[in-house]
Amino acid sequence: MNKYFIDQLVAGNYITGDQHEKIKDWLNKAPFSLHWELRTLLYAGVVLLASGIGILIYDNIDTIGHVTIILIIAALCSYCFYYCFKNKLPFSKLQTKHESPLFDYVLLLGSLLFLTLEGYLQFKYTLFGTHYGLATLIPALVFIFLAYYFDHAGVLSMGITALSAFVGITVSPGMILRNELSEQSLIYTGAALAVFLIGTGYVLKVQDIKRHFTFIYYNFGFHMYFLCMLAGIFTLGLPFIYFALLIVGCALLMRYAIFEKSFYFLLISVIYAYIGITWAIFEMGMGYMLGLYYFVFSCILVIWFFLNYKKLLKLK
Amino acid sequence: MGYDKNQIARIYINDIAAKFAAAKLITVEQFHQIKNDFKYGLYTPSFFVRIGIFIFTSILLNAALGIIGVFFADLMNNETSAGILLLIAATGIYFVLEHVITKKMHYKSGMDDYLLLAGVSFLSFGLVLIEQSCSPLTICFILLPVLTMAVWRYADAFISLLAFICLYCIVFLIFKDYDFGRIFMPFIFLTISIACTMLFHKLLKYDSNFFYKNCLEFLKVASLLILYGSMNYCVVREGNMLLNEGIPGIENMEIPFGIVFLIATFLIPVIYIAIGVSRKDRLLLWTGLGVFVLSVLTLKYKYEYLEFKYLMTGFGALILVIAWQAIRYLKSNAAVYTFAPDDSKSISDLLNAEALIISQTLGKPQSGNTDESGFGGGSFGGGGAGGTI
């Protein structure tokens, strides 16, 4: 495909004959990168192996014996962590990139095995008794520590997921007892967690500690926040309060998106804001025909914003 | 064709110039000279903005058609008149699309994508309604020329895929009525797929087809997939049951040439991967890796006593060892193949940033529209919700 364009460049005297020869040589000899192919294989291998071992153990509890199983997983898991601690890079506030491509995957395998081990201990020996909250809080703390210590975004995501589970479980007993408040308390808790995550991401960004993790905090936090606000709008009383909070969140995210030049967050904030505003407009009582006109004009406005936001926001 | 071919060629020229500059084959001054002389005015936003425009164009168009449709509500009861209405709508969409492309210079902006999709669907449904025939073969014969024309004019990869599937449907529907067709269906599909793969592979090599590059790449992968599917044991067996419905005991019958298909199921991914690596053909390589997963699933289908836990553990360990060994080997033998990432993209982003600084400090005019690609090119330029794993 390249020859056609290179010929144009040569014909227009943009590159000299000497350079042309070099380019042809380079195109023929440049090594073929198998980077992403092999990384994908590594990832697939880790996930398959960890889940395969998990199922195998679950099915063979009766035959192998509990102690053996626990010892095997614990041995594998500690070997993974031992490898990570042995080959770690010195901690840095900035993004660190480990030289060995295996490092990230060994850490991931170790974390997955840790989850298996902990789940197994809880299932068999009820290690934490009925303190289910504690059973989810421990992996959350371990994962978040590992993520920061070794700079691993995937493990951080696992940690945040575990943290959300912990918060959800802590609230849910109340949900069972006082059924009528269930939705409300869940929405409040979700919103509080979301604000906490966003705040954490913001503070760490300002403090310049692993800035690149802020994306993960914001991604979890803002989605959770917007969904809680929408749930509040649709199910709770005084919906316009939640509507106002939703719009404030969208404005903040849009500001961040423009600042960071992230099209992903720009799209997310526009879509959630559009859902909220559409609800508010229809809440004012609108007929079928008027609704169609609303969609036409609002969409024209949004598309126009997408086409012109650089000029509007005076971006270069 | 619908788009300005010269403008699109300029995008390619900018891209390869950035690649050469990153590899230090041309000087930065030459790169800026090229960027300046090959400016293009096409509007191509980033991936997420494209999705946004696509979604909101779809709401807009449907609401607008709803408003207009209210006046013609009575005509919707009759199939022919409804079909004619759809054709009129399709004509209207066509003119809007042409305006967006030629006057507003949109190219893969989300708006042209949706308008094309809507126009093609309206045209097809309109024709089907007027024809008043529900035979699948007739519908396919209506769709194929419509889709082909759309691809010829707008070079849309998704539409080209639809046209390709349509072609296979026609082949299937014709041959399924004959005895020899039912028996040799896998081999008919195999022959066509091999021919198509060769054709698309060849066409991709001709530089003047750059306008259709996306389509051809999609079609090449599609024909490779159908080639694999036509020889896959599971697909052939299920297809055989479907074609010979009503024959007693067909569920338990072994298919003719069963062993051939079983061997092919595993041989084809291996061939894809081997050729992909030796010919440095990334499309073939990824397709091979993808269909290998399907082959493992086929193994589970054929031998039901094999359980997933053993397959997962076994293949997981196998894949890990292969990947690990390959990486170790490449570490010391990086002449032809390398484990180093092909990061010409990130270098070109760097160059764009550099270009921006240089052009501002020297007071030169900003070159073209290309800051669009540098904008947001950071760690999640195209990555999406991406974890880095």
List key phrases describing it.
heterodimer; A: 316 residues; mainly alpha; B: 389 residues; 15 helices; disordered C terminus
**Residue share in β-strands of chain A:** under 5%
CA-atom Rg of chain A in angstroms: 26 Å
Question: Could you name the ranges of chain A where pLDDT drops below 50 across 5 or more consecutive residues?
Answer: none
First and last CA, distance of chain A: 33 Å
SSE order of chain A: HHEHHHHHHHHHHH
Largest beta sheet of chain B, briefly? none
Biggest contact = A-B, 75 and 85 residues
Order of helices and strands of chain B: HHHHHHHHHHHHHEHH
| Count of helical regions of chain B | 15
Helix content of chain B: over 70%
Number of strands of chain A: 1
Question: Can you tell me the residue ranges of chain B where pLDDT is under 50 for at least 5 consecutive residues?
Answer: 346-389
Mean pLDDT of chain A: 83
> What structural class do you assign from the helix and strand content of chain B?
mainly alpha
Helical fraction of chain A: over 70%
Largest sheet, strands/sense/barrel of chain A: none
Number of strands of chain B: 1
> If you compute it from the alpha carbons, what radius of gyration of chain B comes out, rounded to the nearest whole angstrom?
25 Å
Characterise this structure.
The complex is a heterodimer of chains A (about 325) and B (about 400). With about 325 residues, chain A is mainly alpha-helical. Chain A has a domain at about 40-165. Chain A contains 13 helices and one strand; from the N terminus they run ααβααααααααααα. In chain A, helix 9 runs antiparallel to helix 10 (about 215-235) and helix 10 (about 215-235) packs antiparallel against helix 11 (about 240-260). The radius of gyration of chain A is 26 Å and the shape is flat. The model of chain A has no long low-confidence stretch (mean pLDDT about 85). The longest helix of chain B is centred in the middle third of the chain and has 27 residues, at about 180-205. The two termini of chain B are about 40 Å apart. Chain B is built from 15 helices and one strand; from the N terminus they run αααααααααααααβαα. Chain B has helices spanning about 5-20, 30-35, 45-70, 80-100, 110-130, 135-155, 155-175, 180-205, 215-230, 235-245, 260-280, 280-300, 310-330, 345-360, 370-375; one strand spanning about 335-340. Chain B is mainly α. The chains are: A mainly alpha (about 325), B mainly alpha (about 400). Chains A and B meet through helix 1, helix 2, strand 1, helix 3 and helix 6 of A and helix 1, helix 2, helix 3, helix 12 and helix 13 of B. Strand 1 of chain A pairs parallel with strand 1 of chain B.
